[in-house]
Amino acid sequence: MLEVEVMASPALSCHLVANMIIRSLLLCLALMAPVSDEQPTEGGRPVADAPDDHRLSAAPDPRLLAADSLFARGESRAALREVEAVLRSLSGSAGDHTARGAGGDPSLAYEALWRAASLAVALGVERESGPLAGVPEPPSHWYAVAYDWAEEALALDPQGIEPRYWMIAVLGRQALGAGPREAAAMSDRMLALARANLALDPEHAPTLNALGRLHLEIMSRSGMVRLLGRAFVGGEALEQASWAEARRHLERAVALGPDQSMFLLDLGRYHALRRNRREAIDLLRRAIDVGESRPSDRVFVREARALLLELGVNDGGT
Fold it and tell me: Considering its fold, how many domains does the chain have in total?
């Protein structure tokens, strides 16, 4: 790639960092540590090797397909209502945290639970931006129920990648408002979950993207901030963060998901911070192109346009 050196303004850097934090760049605070050849552990227990057919699989349920369609149209709350109906049919109550699959369909329960977790995270993030029609509950409510649903899904399928990923997402959002000690404990949990996911699927694009964003977030801070963090907080994340690792993980995520506007946006951010203006503009325009037709991607399209404006480019969008 061309390395076009253009001085980034302080305002640009602040804008980038603020948006990365808002979009939960800390959702994987401790994901720096590479997956080793040692057997990964989770909560002190080894994670079993995953056979080819380790996943619970279910035939598509019409209600879950309807929920997927609603979310694709940007209707997160309506989508969650569809999934909650499935959970009620399995347990009598969407809030009943018993083994939903014990007397019914564990595959359907697993699919419904991790979807419910993902939609609750989406609602929490949307509520952070301000009032949301038909959603009076605060973000903290949605993160709490999301974690419970994801944890329940993981109990049904200990090899499940999706529930671990959404547990990481919830912990990351919660860590933003936590104190140092609590955030450190969350980081340890996130690390265990992430290592387990990458052991099951080393090319899980969302986890790779989160890894790259974490490197990017840390490296975008001043050298003094990083030095103080290492001295008073510590942790592998601060010690191992690098621009090279940020680029490697973000580029791999884009290679695996070239039509994902979030991945393109985050790699565009990397190039903006590295003063590679031409590459940044190209990636941000691609993020807009692939995201404009998806209501669920509107936040990424909006952020890509805002960053283009910071770079002095007006793409003509609203």
Answer: 2
Question: Distance (Å, rounded) from C-alpha 265 to C-alpha 216?
Answer: 13
The string of pLDDT tens digits covering residues 167-199 is 988 887 887 777 666 766 676 677 678 778 888
Q: Quote the tokens at residue 61.
A: 């349920």
Give CA–CA dist 177/226, Å, rounded.
19
Q: How many CA atoms lie within 13 A of 157 on its CB side?
A: 29
Strands (E), 178-251: none
CA–CA distance from 87 to each of 80, 99, 104, 161, 273 (Å)? 10, 11, 11, 20, 44
Asked, for residue 45, whether it belongs to a domain, the answer is no
- Domain hosting 64: range is 57-175
Task: Tell whether 5 and 70 lie within a shared domain.
Answer: no
Q: Examine residue 30 and state whether it is found in any structural domain, yes or no.
A: no
Helix axes 10-22, 261-273, angle to 10 degrees: 150
CATH number of the domain residue 158 falls in:
1.25.40
